[in-house]
Specification:
single chain, mainly alpha, Tetracycline Repressor, domain 2, 11 helices
């Protein structure tokens, strides 16, 4: 060739990009299917054979990307935490007045469970196992830090302008907000039986949402 390059040189880079895209797509497909399987069936109930079938791949591909069922499960947990934290960071809480920021965060947390119970189911499974897999994560501890730090700054701003009472701990407040949102949805079916009411009815959900926001704000106001 006049420029000294072979014909294969022109196709090397596009081929690499295609392989990279295929690899990322296959990994993402495995994670998506595994998330549903682990959320619906728990760690023990989910089978790698079923995950491979539903992801339309050879079972060996699971071990190629994740090395073991446990590592796949850990990747699912980390991805779930990452999605939750990434969504929280888009709330732009720093741009809002302190009480308005807490309102937005509480509403967002509640609404995230309305949209999808996957995270709740995954957490239930991992708590039954005393977090034995999550303990092996090198990332999860740092994932929660940004939102807790953001709540700490909201408390500090609110204390400074007199809208939020002093003495509040950001971590405890975060746990409280998550907890009162989480419990309703993690127990929604038993609550429906106990109260002989459809707690998934939009009216019931809207009433609970309003109560949760009011409860949080009454607890923090100066």
């Amino acid at each position: 060739m006049p420029d000294g390059k072979s014909v294969t040189d022109d196709t090397t880079e596009p081929a690499k990009l295609v392989r990279k895209r295929d690899s990322a797509g296959t990994r993402a497909r495995i994670l998506n299917v595994a998330t549903r399987e682990f959320a619906n069936k728990g760690y023990e109930g989910a089978k790698t054979d079923d995950i491979a079938d539903r992801a339309r791949i050879n079972k060996r591909m699971i071990y190629h990307y994740f090395s073991s069922k446990e590592q796949l499960y850990l990747a699912v947990l980390e991805a779930a935490y990452d999605r939750a934290r990434s969504a929280e960071q888009k709330l732009e809480l720093e741009q809002l007045a302190p009480l308005e920021a807490l309102t937005r965060f509480t509403e967002f947390t509640f609404d995230s469970f309305v949209r999808d119970r996957t995270f709740i189911n995954l957490l239930a499974t991992e708590n039954r196992q005393r977090a034995k897999v999550l303990k092996k994560s090198a990332q999860v501890n740092t994932m929660n830090s940004p939102v807790i730090d953001a709540i700490g700054r909201i408390i500090a701003r609110g204390t400074a302008d007199g809208s939020i009472r002093g003495g509040l701990d950001a971590r405890h407040l975060w746990v409280t907000i998550i907890g009162i949102c989480y419990f309703f949805f993690s127990n929604i079916y038993t609550l429906s039986v106990i109260f002989d009411a459809d707690m998934e009815d939009p009216v019931s959900i809207a009433a609970r949402r309003a109560h949760v926001v009011d409860f949080v704000l009454r607890g923090v106001r100066a």
